[in-house]
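thread from #wetlab-drylab

HS: before we spend reagent money on co-crystallization trials with nicotinamide-adenine-dinucleotide, can we at least see a predicted complex? here's what I'd submit
DV: go for it
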Amino acid sequence: MRVLLTGGAGFIGSYLARRLLLDGHAVTIVDNLSTGKRKNVPDGADFIELDLAQSDCLKFLPSVPFDAVCHLAAQSSGPVSAEIPYYDLQANAASTLLLSRWCLQNHVPRFLYASSMAIYGNVESFPVCEDIICLPRSYYGVSKLTSEHFLRLASQEGLSVTSLRMFSVYGPGQNLGNLNQGMVSIYLAYLLRGEPVPVTGSLDRFRDFVYIDDVLDAWLGVLQMPSTPSLVYNIGTGKPTKVHELLAAQIAALHLPSDYPIYELPGSSFDQFGLYADVQRSKAELNWQPVISLEKGLEKMVAWATSQKKV
Ligand SMILES: NC(=O)c1ccc[n+]([C@@H]2O[C@H](COP(=O)([O-])OP(=O)(O)OC[C@H]3O[C@@H](n4cnc5c(N)ncnc54)[C@H](O)[C@@H]3O)[C@@H](O)[C@H]2O)c1
């Protein structure tokens, strides 16, 4: 299979690139290196440095017959989306519109999209399933939901589309220097530096933390399917973890004292209070199941992080 992979210099995209290459696929990565790193692009992948937020970007794509596009490039930070919402719209939603049109015009049959739990907003019943009405609370969530709708329209025109609504993905390789995205990696960065951990919002908020290898299995499984019965799928563990429980588990994994200093800062109006996934549809229709517990996943991530020379 020949895959055009956007965001392949980032955390999730670089994992996907390595696995695709290992499985014998040809991979072309497009990334503007805004949060991703050139060193994350694996040997064997073609690399095009390109900003997908620019309206004329697609003319720089090679005219080879791709079998699929995996669109993971995005401005991925909720706080940044509040600072520069128009850029967020261009980088996240407009890029999806352009790429999906490009696929239709160039006979690329398959499109997988990196959607997010951020599309849901604050919900009242848990776990959250794919069919509820989505009222995102952040510009980022609006852009991701808009992308899903652009893809729904493209699917009506014949593009085979699947959006994976990933919950809070974590694991080795996450950017510990980026304090704008990734709850697990942000707290871990402070803990590794021995600094008190600032928590923006309540310690009682909860999330669904899903390990990178489980997420990768979902992407690879879906890519093998010419189409999926549904357009959107939750990719989480189906288990809620409160922020203070996450911190306690990270502190334990690092063998730090249980009274390690943590302080709460006022929350953001764009933040979601709590969410965890209903993964019944993903299990039934994708034959996918998360297997890594939070404790095991954090153990692997901490082992990786402590082996790094500097944070
Ligand atoms: N990490 C999570 O918990 C999570 C959860 C849900 C959804 N997602 C989505 O998954 C995807 C990958 O997330 P990640 O955690 O690996 O983030 P990341 O920031 O590590 O990766 C995103 C990549 O996209 C690139 N990029 C950003 N804007 C671009 C642009 N305009 N043109 C080209 N490249 C651009 C970045 O340089 C980076 O390499 C994103 O779409 C993100 O929104 C992530």
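DV: Residues 7, 9-13, 31-36, 51-53, 72-76, 91, 114, 116, 166, 168-169, 175, 182 surround nicotinamide-adenine-dinucleotide (CB under 6 Å).
HS: ok that's useful, forwarding to the group
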